[in-house]
Here is the input.
Amino acid sequence: MARLAPSERIRDADRTRAELLAVATEVFATHGYSGARVDEIAERTSTTKRMIYYYFGGKEQLYLAVLEAAYRNIREAEQSINAGDLPPADAVRRIAELTFDHHHAHPEFIRLVSVENIHQAEHLQQVEHLRDLGAPAASLLEDVLARGREAGAFRTDVDAIDVHMLISAYCVFQVANSATFGFLFGRDMLADDVRRRHRAILGDAVVAWLTAR
Amino acid sequence: MARLAPSERIRDADRTRAELLAVATEVFATHGYSGARVDEIAERTSTTKRMIYYYFGGKEQLYLAVLEAAYRNIREAEQSINAGDLPPADAVRRIAELTFDHHHAHPEFIRLVSVENIHQAEHLQQVEHLRDLGAPAASLLEDVLARGREAGAFRTDVDAIDVHMLISAYCVFQVANSATFGFLFGRDMLADDVRRRHRAILGDAVVAWLTAR
DNA sequence: GAGTTAATGAACCAAACGGTACATAATTCG
DNA sequence: CGAATTATGTACCGTTTGGTTCATTAACTC
Here is the structure.
């Protein structure tokens, strides 16, 4: 008897799980952990609330799964950055710009990080194998920084985490605080022309900082 | 008959109101809007839940009052910054450092802003007279920027809001994302020595950026 | 194709939660 | 003082919410 292709099957654990995860990501990012409703997540899928408990165990475990998947995605994006053959200053600018683009492309991830910070990263700490997730981003910058220092082009009193933090801070702010900042200063942070301008500013600032004096 | 001093009175509308506001600020900043419990706020005060509804009308209006008070505080702090007699570069560095200090001194305000951003600033928009709250911070930088440009010391392709955004982004990130960033990179963002270092980095970066070329 | 297991759905439940009704005591004011 | 007003506490209510029970069907195994 011909087996149905996985995509045509009515019962498909992987699809159901993935759908719940995708919808849950959006709902948690929109309403926060407490504000997210299990019923709403279920309603937005083609399955029922029962499946959340069947596959994940409960609201909190679902949130943990969402967090883990989100961080796995960003790690992959970071590892795909390739700036090895550019002069140090250009390489740093390129890393900054790609980071900037990635943040704008995945606002739901940024919002999830905000949510997690409000809760003092208590859930993140439960996902053990996310511990040294910062390493890839740092080592990428480490290489470029070392090259710049050797060439005498970069200042020597900063490390890779310092640089990453300045870049992250700027990028995260653009997305995470666009609502309040946009309101208070009457600037639409997500408009295309504004975004291009801010992107250029980040590159200018980071390079100017590293090459100063 | 001798009237009791207000501070000794058992019934004191102002004190009750202020106490509720203070406790609510902390609870909303810790748990987010939905995560904050009206009962918890009441329990942490010397009064009862009933008073929240008597003075504010409900959970949402209490949150609005908290937001408004928090933003009023930061406006006052910004207006107290005085950098008029310093050379432009030193003045910008000073503004950046004072902003940095203020953020670290009021983490609950930063967290409240994060909460509000998760909700797309929908509550902030309801507090009408907070609309152009950004103006003071911008005009302070505007003056310094103008002086720097006239002296030929500063670049001319950025405005006050650009500068304020870079400073804000860095300062907000330090406080708002200290939990996740600290976890992923093993750096305690709130430790004294780390904080001093980050403070200096911000000044270096902003001045280098503005004076580049 | 019979038996077993994985996956799913509908209805239901107890606790938590925001909010209120009612009673009452402190304060003010004529 | 005594009436009117302001402030406060207790007990309770209806709804929402995360979670569960029980039954059932699709899919896989041999």
